Amino acid sequence: TISKSQSVISGIDDIRKGKIPFGRIGIVVGSAVEQYYLREISDENRNYYPLNSQKEIYSKLLSGVIDAAISDTGLLQYATNQLYCNLTIVGEDFDKSSYGIAMPQQWLYEQELDVNITSLQESGAIDDLTTKWFETSNCPDPSVISTSIGIEAMGGLFIIFAAISVLSLLLFLWTQRLSIKDYLLTSACRKKPSAQPDASLDQSFMKISTELPISTVAPSLPSSSARNHLYFQTEF
Any signal peptide, and if so, which residues (predicted)? Predict the structure, then answer.
């Protein structure tokens, strides 16, 4: 049984139990698989999705027309390992049978071909060919793909985070532009030297000075110890 990578079934038994609609199961019309399906699954009820060729199995699966299909194991192994990496085989083999080679009756090389095929089976050559062409996958490792996607996603998140940080900084500067402008003007005024004395300070000093009455008295008779001094008296 073949289905998409994210399958809801695990094998032929799930199809029998109706885990997916029978109308979304693809069967090639006129094939041995159709006979098996009618005999073992649907009780001669043609409730499946009819397909005209093996190739149509893959196109209908990829386009989402069907959810699963039943076909020969060898054909499905080659397709999923070599051609359609986003499709997968689910479950174990069932209804095992052998492949045959059609040839004309009384063919001259019939016996020779039979002997050589038997020899290849006994030597393990057919098993080697099966492994090479049907069981060996040329598809990329899913774990490697997941890792690369994870790194790319992290890189994208980093870029988004950096962009948000820059925008946040610009927004903060825009909202605080008046405060920053006032701060710069204040700093510039503090550094600028004063060209004229503070008039208010001079006026205050003059006012205080003028409000202090000063009177002078004539000196008394000088004594010997203080004849060189003048005395001033100030009344507050």
Answer: none
